[in-house]
């Protein structure tokens, strides 16, 4: 005659329950080994930075706050902000065009995005800087008709103008895809509900779709802004006085190449870290109510 096991009474051979509150963590030797190796590598790198005389840290400290370097940093920040604003506006228009039901506009916007994402920004900068070779004068008049006024191209397309045009056209292509992805991430029912409440198409987009799309747009747009900041170093090729060009002018005179490059790296690092903190705050703001 078999006896049914009683509830709460441990049976012979059954696994014993473990109290999670008093359980000891498992020893993971591979983690200890990886941590030790990482510590050794960090110590070795720190020793390399401190003991290698080639870094010339006194020279780095001398030029870190040099007026020419700070002016170059200011130009880099100004160029980044201008290009990001213009590129975002143009990218928004391109995204709206690609989502448009009017096929010629959608096709034209798609061709623009494909072309300007395919051409490297350095090539675009050099091309726009040498636009005078193809177009000696910039005319203003009626298409296929008379010209009212014109200006010499080389006097209009300076290094700053070429940098703004080239980087803006390149940035707009990427921002168009970022904005388009954010808009497509919003459920179509949101638009239908807004229209049912009497919102116009513009009000539906501005008050309903765009705020929800920002949750998807902000992370890649923030990364794109940081990439743009670093990408502005390309304008040194067309002799624009940004941060990299400013340190190049100094080390071409003093031949202290490595210390001046460290100065540029230090300022890029400071600005990028600051922008990363701002990006996280924006992500938390637009991600409210989301896990």
Describe the structure in your own words.
It is a single chain. With 291 residues, this protein is mainly alpha-helical. Helix content is 68%, strand content 4%. It has 11 helices and 2 strands. A two-stranded antiparallel sheet has the order 1-2. A hairpin with a 5-residue loop joins strand 1 and strand 2 (147-152). Helix 3 packs antiparallel against helix 4, helix 7 (159-184) crosses helix 9 (201-231) and helix 9 (201-231) runs antiparallel to helix 11 (257-286). It is a multi-pass membrane protein.
Topology summary:
Blueprint: H1 29-51, H2 57-63, H3 67-98, H4 103-118, H5 121-129, E1 137-141, E2 147-152, H6 153-156, H7 159-184, H8 188-196, H9 201-231, H10 243-254, H11 257-286
Antiparallel strand pairs: 1-2
SS elements, strand count: 2
How many separate helices? 11
CATH class: Mainly Alpha
Basic shape:
flat
Secondary structural class: mainly alpha
Count of discrete domains = 1
Helix content: 55-70%
What distinguishing features does this structure have?
291 residues, mainly alpha, MetI-like fold, two-stranded antiparallel sheet, 11 helices, 2 strands, 4% strand, flat
């Amino acid at each position: 005659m078999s006896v049914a096991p009683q509830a709460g009474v441990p049976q012979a051979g059954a696994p014993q329950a473990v109290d999670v509150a008093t359980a000891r963590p498992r020893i993971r030797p591979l983690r200890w080994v990886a941590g030790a190796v990482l510590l050794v590598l960090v110590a070795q790198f720190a020793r390399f930075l401190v003991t290698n005389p080639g870094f010339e840290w006194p020279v780095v400290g001398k030029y870190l706050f040099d007026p020419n370097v700070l002016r170059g940093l200011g130009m880099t920040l100004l160029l980044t902000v201008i290009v990001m604003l213009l590129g975002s506006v143009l990218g928004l228009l391109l995204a709206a065009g690609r989502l448009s039901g009017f096929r010629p506009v959608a096709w034209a916007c798609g061709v623009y995005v494909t072309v300007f994402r395919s051409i490297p920004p350095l090539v675009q900068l050099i091309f726009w800087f040498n636009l005078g070779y193809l177009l000696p004068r910039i005319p203003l008049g009626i298409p296929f008709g008379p010209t009212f006024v014109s200006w010499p191209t080389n006097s209009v397309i300076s290094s700053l103008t070429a940098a703004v045009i080239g980087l803006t056209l390149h940035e707009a292509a990427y921002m168009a895809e970022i904005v388009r992805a954010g808009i497509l991430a919003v459920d179509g029912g949101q638009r239908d509900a807004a229209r049912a409440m009497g919102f116009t198409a513009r009000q539906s987009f501005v008050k309903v779709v765009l705020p929800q799309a920002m949750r998807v747009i902000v992370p890649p747009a923030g990364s794109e802004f940081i990439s743009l900041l670093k990408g502005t170093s390309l304008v040194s090729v067309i002799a624009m006085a940004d941060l990299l060009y400013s340190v190049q002018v100094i080390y071409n005179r003093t031949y202290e190449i490595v210390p001046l490059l460290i100065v540029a790296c230090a300022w890029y690092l400071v600005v990028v870290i600051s922008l990363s903190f701002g990006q996280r705050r924006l992500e938390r703001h637009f991600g409210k109510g989301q896990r």
